[in-house]
Amino acid sequence: MFAQFFGNYLLGKGAVTPDQLSTAIAHTQSTHIKIGTLAMQKGYMTAAEVDEVCFIQTREDKRFGEIAMERNYLFEDQLEELLDTQNSNYLLLGQTLIDLGFLTNSDLEEYLVEYQAENDLGSLSAGDESDDAVERLIENFLEEAGNEIPEHAVIYIKLIFNSLVRFIGQDFTPLAPIEVESYDTHSCVAQKIEGPIRITASLDMDTDVAVEFASRYAKMEFEEMDEYVEASLEDFLNLHNGLYTVNMSNARAMELTLEPPYHQDNTEITFQDVCYVIPVIYPFGTVYVLIEIY
Which residues pair with 193 in a beta bridge? Predict the structure, then answer.
């Protein structure tokens, strides 16, 4: 989940604005990872070398890799490796921010190095995300909430990211959890988890976002908000919460039960206890994950 949390890191560093981040995420589906960006991430080339090759390309009708090899910036085996991984979405966000003019190659190089160092990620690559590395990423991410989040809520949050990757898509960036006392909903589905611990989990989003979210989940093309979209949202939440109760039973010997999902659209919710809101930005819009802890 390196790429998912990198956007939030850039936002926290003031490298991009929320609007720039949202715009870049919306453009990621049409972005193609460039060899130069991959070469910088691997440490094969510096930002200055990438800029030089890009400049030469404006004067010579040659591919990036060809020029880089002529100048001994890349060896043949390195270029072949980069070409093999070029379709990875690992650096889509960074590449898109560059293409839109929000970051330079030098900026991206600097922030990648800092991000890897601060999260103890070493030379992490797209297919090399160990469980320990992902664990550190999420723990550092959750520290931004300020107050300490209870362990059972942390487990829930970690699992929701996995569920989003598995069932909706990994092209998202979560923003830091926000503790709220009230919240105005749009298209919102909720479900209560009861037992030794109690959680009310909700997903809220605009109507058009809900249609696309449901389309991805059901692997069908929905055109408008209807009972099929609502049922898909309910099914996703119920499936995820079912996985959570199974995990808590296996790992904590804690038996939990689920109440049926329900909708609370276009209303203001006032929370009696602690509620965290996690905005999750997809190219098609923002999904808000609400976790109320009793």
Answer: 199, 258
> CB–CB of 284/209 below 8 Å?
yes
Q: Which helix (H) or strand (E) holds 25?
A: helix 18-27
| pLDDT tier at 127, thresholds 50, 70, 90 | very low
Helix (H, G, I), strand (E, B) or coil at 280: strand
pLDDT per residue over 86-124, tens digit each? 645 557 788 889 999 999 999 998 998 888 888 776 654
Confidence (pTM): 0.77
Measured between alpha carbons, how far is 98 from 108 in angstroms, rounded to an integer?
8
Q: For strand 262-263 and strand 187-194, is the pairing parallel, antiparallel, or unpaired?
A: antiparallel
Could you give the C-alpha distances from 276 to 6, 21, 34, 86, 160, in angstroms and in order? 21, 22, 37, 37, 13
What are the structural domains of the chain?
Answer: 2-127 (no CATH), 146-293 (3.40.1550.10)
Burial of 57 (0-12, 13-18, 19+ CB in 10 A): middle
